[in-house]
Amino acid sequence: MKKVPYLIVAFIILFGCKDNKNTTVSSYIPENVNQSVVYDTSNLFTQSERDSLTQKILDFEKQTTNQTAVLTVDSIPKNEDILYFGTQVAESWGIGTKEKNNGLLITISKNDRKIAISTGFGMEKTISDYECQMIIDNIIVPEFKSEMYYEGVSKALDSLFLLWD
């Protein structure tokens, strides 16, 4: 009988604490109702730049069936990994075909100063995480330091599409 209070406390500790990582991330995932391939919630791009990036992405998709998107947000959940966040967004939006899992998402968190390139599992042999990081470090970041956001993303897409083709 003396063990009952201990069992109750143990039960509360085990089942009362839950990992709310997914609920935190899912509450930050923007709904892409228009299914835009450039979803610029941080307004980093002009309308003309959004149109140009959109056309570049759609032209590549027509040639290859590979699906690409760009997402800008002001911030992601505190202490969240941007690559994990981007992967959750890509899965939520359905980027890439189910058969090939050939989606790619460039995620930019403006206020957090974080960037990630999330790829579908079907692309791991085509574009490695290392290559994605090199594109971020050597192409995107130098342009972003000069506040040349469009140029950074456009050049990154060019490099990714060359690797992907």
Automatic annotation (TrEMBL):
UniProt source species = Winogradskyella ouciana
Q: Which InterPro entries match?
A: TPM_dom
**Gene3D superfamilies the UniProt entry points to:** 3.10.310.50
TPM domain residues are: 38-160
Pfam annotation, one family: TPM_phosphatase
Annotated protein name in UniProt: TPM domain-containing protein
